[in-house]
Amino acid sequence: MMHMRTANPDAAPEPRIRMNDFGALSPPELGAWTPRRSVSIVIPAYRSDETLPLTLASLAGQSYPAHLMEVVVVDDGEGEPLRLPESAPENTRVVRPGPGGWGIANAFHTGVTAAEGEVVHRIDADLVLQAEHVEAQMRWHHLANYLVVLGHLRFNDYDPASLTASEVHAAVVAGTVGKLFDDEGTPQWTEAKWDETADLRWAGLDVFRLNVGATASMTKELYLSTGGMDTALARGSDTEIGYRLAQAGAVFVADRESHCRHLGSSTVMRRQNEVQRYTQPYMAERIPYRQYRPLRGPNRRYAVPKVEAVVTAGGCSLEDVRATVNGLLGSWMSDVRVTLVGPWGLLTDERRSPLDDPLLDLRLVRETFRGDDRVRFAEEVAGTAFPSPFRFTCPAGWVLEPETLGRLVGFAEERALGLVSLVVDERQEPVAARLERTAALSRARLLVRPGEDLEEVVHQVAGTVWEDGHRWGILPADDPASTAEDGLEAQAERWRRRAERWEVRALRWKEKALAMQMRGLDPVSARRLRRAVGKGLRLVRAAGGRRTGAAGTRDRRSGG
C-alpha cells in the first residue's frame, strides 16, 4: 500500500515539473552553495572485500560536508561479520539484514530503514567516486522532494593488485581519479538515452527504465512512500522500484557531474541474455509495460494490472452494475481488474425477507461476481490506482465497447495525459467516466496546496482533456448496440462504427510506415509496419466500413 505525503502548509511551495522536464530547476554550481540536508550513503556489500575499501576511500574524500553525511554498509555475507577498513569515512557503520533476508534489494531496504539522513543515496560496493559525486546529486534534493537523481557511470578494467585505498583517496582529493585508469571506460547503456533526451528532460513515460542502481539518490520519504524495494527480487529490483517511484510521482534527473568509475564489468554486460531470460517473468508480473509483457499469447492476468476499473455499486441496480462490469471484463484489453465500491459490510447473514431486502441489489451484485478473481470488493478506493498505471472510473449503467478501453489508454499514453474525462450524459447533471494516469495523480497530490483544486494541478503537471464518451464507445446499458443480445441491425451499426475507427487507425499506420521508411528504417521493421497496415485495412473491408476522410481524422480527439 502506498503512503501519500500530505502537503505542509508552512513549507515553501514545491516547483511543479511537467512530465520529466526538470529544466525549470537551476542547481547551483559545485562548491558555490551551502548544503543543508543530511544524506545516508547506503552500500549493499556482498563478496566485496577487494573493492569495498576503495569505494569507502573515495567516500572519505567527498566534497559534501562530513557532518551531513553518514555511510551505512549493509553486510549481506554469510560468513564472518564484515570489518570496516581504515579507509572508511568517520561516520560509517555496518548493519546486518534480518534473519532469512538476502540479496541486494533486501540489503538496500535494510540500510534505508536504518538510515538517519533525509536523503538516501545508493552506492554499489565496487565504485570509485569523484570528489563531487555526492554533492552533485544532493544539490538537486535541495530544490524539490520528488526527484530521483542518477549518477554518471563508466566501466573500467580492474586489477585488484593495481590500486590501494590510499591511492584512491589521494586521487579523489586531488581531482585526478581519471589517471587511476588506462582509458575513459565503457559507457553504461543508459548514457545513449541521456544523450537522446537532454539528460532525461525529454524522456517518455518509461523513463523509469533508466533507474539501473549503482548510484542513485532520493528522499527517504519518497522511497518509503512506494513501499520500498521488492525484497523477493534477486535481480531487476532497480527497474521495478524505478517503476513504482514513477507511479508515486517521481521525476528522474541525470547528472553527468556526479561521476564515478565501476571496477570491472557488470553481470548484465557479461551475461545479458541470461539476465533478461531470468528477469522477464518477474518484471511481467510487476510492470505493466509492453517491453515486459509479451504482445502475443493468451489473455493473461498479472499481479499488477494495466488498468484498475472502478464501478460504484452502492445505490445502483444489479442490471446496471452487471452490464458495466461485464463490458469492462469483455474488453479486448484483458489486462484489467475491476473494483466494485459499496457498503459491503452492511451485508450480514441475519434473518431477512429475501425479496424485500432493502439491500437486495447490493447483495445480488456481490453474489454475481463473488467467484470472479478479476473483481474485488471495496468499501472505498485509494487516492490513486498505485501501483497500476491507470484507473478507469465508470458510472454503473454505461457499457464500453470492446475496443474502447484499449484505445483510451493508448490515447492517454500517446499524449502523456494525466486525466481524460468522458461525458456520457448531459441531460441533467453531467455524468462522466474518467481515465486517470497514476503517475500524474500522485505527483499532483504531492504538490497540491490546501484549498487548491487537484485537477488543476494535474493539468499543470501532465494535462487534462474532456471528450465525448459516446464517440469513444461508452453507451447506455439499454442501448441495443451495447448488448450482446441485439438484432442484426444493431450489430451492423456497431460494426460500422468500429470499421470507421479501424480505417482511421489504418490510415495513420500507413502514414507512420511511410514516414519511417523515408527516414531509412531497417527493412525488418518496415515490413512489420506494412503488415500491420494490411491487417487494419483487411479488417475494415471485412466489416464493410467506409472511409471517413479528413473529417474522421480530425474527430479523433473526440474518439471519432
From TrEMBL:
SUPFAM superfamilies for the chain: Nucleotide-diphospho-sugar transferases
Matching Gene3D superfamilies: Spore Coat Polysaccharide Biosynthesis Protein SpsA, Chain A (3.90.550.10)
InterPro entries: Glyco_trans_2-like, Glycosyltransf_2, Nucleotide-diphossugar_trans
Pfam family, one: Glycos_transf_2
Tree of life domain: Bacteria
Keywords assigned: Coiled coil
Keyword Magnesium among UniProt keywords: no
Coiled coil: 485-512
Domain Glycosyltransferase 2-like: start-end pairs: 40-164
PANTHER family, alphabetized: GLYCOSYLTRANSFERASE (PTHR43685), SLR2126 PROTEIN (PTHR43685:SF3)
Name of this protein: Glycosyltransferase 2-like domain-containing protein
Organism: Planobispora siamensis
